[in-house]
């Protein structure tokens, strides 16, 4: 089996990280797990390091200061490619993405450069409040219309990339931050002709810990970033 890494960025996930790692490892997929902790004040990084000492499949990178989602992912991507990863799974640490669905995403990754665990295709289930459903659908609809993306859930962080796609991603150094980073990755890979497919998932609202999304700020920053990304794509 090709070397596969699961890259999980974390910030204040002390209540979830141990259970998440145990559930991923219990799948017996032979994957390695990289936790990229963004200087969590609640001790997430310390807990992850303790678990890494007990299991050689778990590795931890700790940022000295909070750097944001995009930079955490890019730092993780550089590292796992240097280790020889051929496939990279990305997911959130709050159990909104169910580890048991990793195999179905990996199965599709043999035929596509990017596989997206999608909340907005037939067969998917959404288990969170109506307001968040409205925000999510509005965000992805606007992004798809503006950027011409075929992927219905372009803000989903539950993905599998192959090595070829990630090497393309890392050729560029300056990306948007926050959840728009995820949209920008798909947009740039789409423009380069990389193949993509969506797999329906069950998306659950977090049960423990607090959401990181500050909705008004995230929406305004997201709209600005998407417009800037569109303008940048048409200017010489």
How would you portray this structure in words?
Pfam families: Glycos_transf_2. By secondary structure, this protein is α/β, with parallel strands linked by helices. The protein has helices spanning 17-26, 44-54, 69-82, 102-108, 130-147, 163-169, 180-191, 215-234, and strands at residues 4-10, 32-37, 58-62, 87-90, 114-118, 125-127, 159-162, 196-200, 202-204. It is 42% helix and 18% strand. β1, α1 (17-26) and β2 form a beta-alpha-beta unit. The longest helix is centred in the last third of the chain and has 20 residues, at 215-234.
CATH classification class = Alpha Beta
* Total number of strands: 9
Strand content: 15-25%
Instruction: Compute the number of structural domains.
Output: 1
Compute the average pLDDT: 88
Key phrases:
single chain; 236 residues; alpha/beta; Spore Coat Polysaccharide Biosynthesis Protein SpsA, Chain A; seven-stranded mixed sheet; two-stranded parallel ribbon; 8 helices; 42% helix; transferase; glycosyltransferase; Nucleotide-diphossugar_trans
């Amino acid at each position: 089996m090709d070397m596969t890494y699961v890259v999980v960025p974390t910030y204040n996930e002390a209540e979830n990280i141990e259970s998440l790692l145990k559930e991923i490892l219990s799948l017996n997929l032979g994957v390695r797990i990289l936790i990229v902790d963004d200087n969590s004040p609640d001790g997430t990084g310390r807990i992850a390091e303790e678990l890494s000492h007990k299991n050689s499949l778990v590795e931890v990178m700790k940022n000295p200061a909070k750097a944001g989602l995009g930079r955490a992912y890019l730092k993780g991507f550089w590292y796992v490619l240097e280790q020889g990863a051929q496939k990279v799974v990305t997911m959130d640490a709050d159990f909104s993405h169910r580890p048991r669905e990793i195999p179905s995403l990996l199965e599709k990754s043999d035929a596509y450069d990017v596989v997206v665990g999608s909340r907005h295709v037939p067969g998917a289930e959404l288990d969170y409040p109506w307001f968040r459903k409205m925000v999510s659908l509005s965000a992805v609809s606007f992004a798809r219309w503006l950027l011409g993306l075929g992927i219905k859930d372009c803000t989903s962080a539950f993905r599998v990339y192959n090595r070829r796609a990630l090497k393309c991603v890392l050729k560029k150094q300056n990306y948007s931050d926050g959840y728009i980073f995820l949209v920008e990755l798909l947009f740039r890979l789409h423009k380069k002709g990389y193949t993509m497919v969506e797999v329906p998932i069950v998306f659950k609202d977090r049960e423990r810990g607090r959401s990181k999304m500050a909705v008004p700020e995230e929406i305004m920053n997201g709209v600005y970033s998407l417009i800037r990304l569109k303008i940048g794509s048409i200017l010489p």
